[in-house]
Amino acid sequence: MPKTVLQSNWYYGTKFDKDERAVEAYTALAENGYDQIPTASNWSSPESFGLTVDYCVKNIPSERLLGFMQTSWKPTLAACRQRHLEAIEQVKQARARIT
């Protein structure tokens, strides 16, 4: 893969150790010179996004870490509004820890 292709590794879990293949991918991409926008979700755990941010800030060089993405994987319907608001709050909390 050319280094000009921005990488966006997805991980929804809460276990951030080197034995997790998806977690290891963040480090491997950084070590191989790829820019990244790590991505998480509150799909399976409300802690996933914040833990992803914490891990990546510590393990991806700042010049390779271009931001983060979050999704709830829920439709934008009134019935799912609360999940979207929770995702926004999770981003806000994670951002406060790194700024």
Protein described:
This protein starts with 20 loop residues before the first helix and ends with a helix. The longest helix is centred in the C-terminal third of the chain and has 18 residues, at 81-98. The chain has helices at 21-31, 48-59, 81-98; strands spanning 39-41, 69-71. The radius of gyration is 14 Å and the shape is elongated. Helix 2 packs parallel to helix 3. Strand 1 (39-41), helix 2 (48-59) and strand 2 (69-71) form a beta-alpha-beta unit. The protein has a two-stranded parallel ribbon with strand order 1-2. The protein has 99 residues and is mostly helical.
Count of runs of 4 or more consecutive helical residues: 3
Sheet with most strands: strand arrangement: 1-2
Approximate shape: elongated
Low-pLDDT parts are none
What share of residues are in beta strands? 5-15%
Approximately how much helix is present in the residues? 40-55%
Structural class based on helices, strands and sheet pairing: mainly alpha
What's the rounded overall pLDDT mean?
A: 94
